[in-house]
Amino acid sequence: MTTLIEVKPFRVLVAGYINLNVIDGSAFFVAGMAAMLSRHVGVEVAVLTANPILKSDVLSEVVHFPNVRVIDPYREPRRTRLGLDAAKPTRTGYAAAIVAEAEHYDAVLVRDNETAVEVLRIRPSLADKLCVYVTGVSSVSSELSAPVREQLTTLSTYPVRVACQTPDMKAVLEQAGFDEMARRAFILPPHVPDPDADFEELFHYSASPNRLSYAGKFFPDWIPDLILAGFKAGQKQRPDLRLDVAGDHFQASSDRPNFTATVRYLLTETPGVAWHGRLPRARAREVIVASDVGIGWRSPNLQSSAELSTKILEYGALARPAILNRTPAHERLLGADYPLFADSLTEFKRLLMSIADGAMVEAAARRCFEASRPYWYSAVSPSVLEWIGCVPSAAPTETWARLHADGRTIWCVEGGDDVSPVLWGNLLIAGGQTHTMPLSSALLRVAEMASVRREVERSVIEMGSADTELHTSGSLETPDEVRVLRTEAGRLRRQLEELAGEAAYARSRLEALQKSRLGRLQRRVWRLKRRRGAENEQFGK
């Protein structure tokens, strides 16, 4: 039997004064947070953008989830109502947009001290809903800047929830005199999508690894010029070396006026380098999966960073090791004997030679995979939910499917009439009503609804683009119906794009499996079966 339980969702608004048109770690934090929270039954997430959305690369991770909304406040009627200027986005205007939306949500998560202060200035009563991810505390060896200290001082006077990325950041707050804030600060670590297979399937063994990958910024402290120069030198000794690079986010250097031009030249003119440019996160992950070793080597200026690189964890979750700086944080994460530490250009070039050892690369990859495990969405999200005020007292462990009916959200849980009521934080069983029906019937309803959606999409395609005015012959009689159809068609098209991306990722997984030890064993089994089948057929003749 199947129990249908209607619940009042816990609604979370995710915000940050971050340009989500730019492929950047801060932007991926916002999209990743929405994706991570949306995994949970009864949680609905909205992402409030700080700029007019012109590119979908960052948000492509979340737009296909039925319980995630993307709100662009620069679209009408919000833009007029809030008095926003799309050509000149401001932090004050963005804070006003957060305040305008906040009343509809149970928690407001802001990745930005300064914006959180602006929100409290406009509406102090939102302090109880406000969850602030502390920024600007990036080094364990330097003093807090005056603006950051002022922002933290203001936040400390309100009952807001605060989070730091690492214990090191929490220690910096204590040393700076924010003892009370540090005491109640939640550790919100970097988080990466769960791998969709175990290590044996994800890792593809090579007797002589030669493919490297770099997916990240082209900033001075990320030393892309040295990485490319080192690779160029290494290739003279190992002509088989290959480097795949993803990204297009450049930052000029005041100390080195030719920095950007040099990096662009090396990206386009270095033999063995394939620069893929700007890629959505799913495509960038494909580039990593196609490589043997990732590169996370950085400038010594970042040695005292209080933050942990999310990219390192992403390499690990995809069963790829990374060349890294030897820092206390990295030694705690991977062990002092991790074989791919580099602290100079000389050591980096030496490692380019040593990665020809397939057994060493496999051991390093396994260590990175295991080290990433506590940072997977599934490991991090329960504590994040608790931090923002959504505490599961009894989560459903049975198979469930989400249904939509009459504008309500219903969860379909496999079980009998004696299934305990589901309580998720402050989620309530609406009216205490429980309905039972066979699981097969419930799944049939899901299939029927999917079929209806496909028919709607087909109709919209025939009638014209969902982004233009629809002209109907009377089948849609009201503007509301037209609006619903446009929204549904847009959502379905995004879903089709996501399915295409998943298909490409599945193909890359198949290629990885074919190269893995597990894949080689499976192919031997298949060859043996074919040989025996042929022998049996011959014997039968």
Give an overview of the whole structure.
- The protein is α/β, with parallel strands linked by helices and 541 residues long.
- The protein has 3 domains: 9-187, 3-Layer(aba) Sandwich (Rossmann fold), CATH 3.40.50.2000; 199-375, Rossmann fold (3-Layer(aba) Sandwich), CATH 3.40.50.2000; 393-502, no CATH class.
- It is built from 19 helices and 18 strands.
- Strands 4-3-2-5-6-7-8 form a 7-stranded parallel beta sheet, sandwiched between helices. It has a 5-stranded parallel beta sheet with strand order 11-10-9-12-13, sandwiched between helices. It has a 4-stranded antiparallel beta sheet with strand order 15-16-1-18.
- Helix 3 crosses helix 4 (113-122).
- The longest helix is centred in the C-terminal third of the chain and has 37 residues, at 479-515.
- It is globular.
Keywords:
disordered N terminus; Rossmann fold; 541 residues; 3 domains; seven-stranded parallel sheet; five-stranded parallel sheet; 15% strand; alpha/beta; globular; 19 helices
Question: In summary, what is this structure?
Answer:
The protein has 541 residues and is an alpha/beta fold.
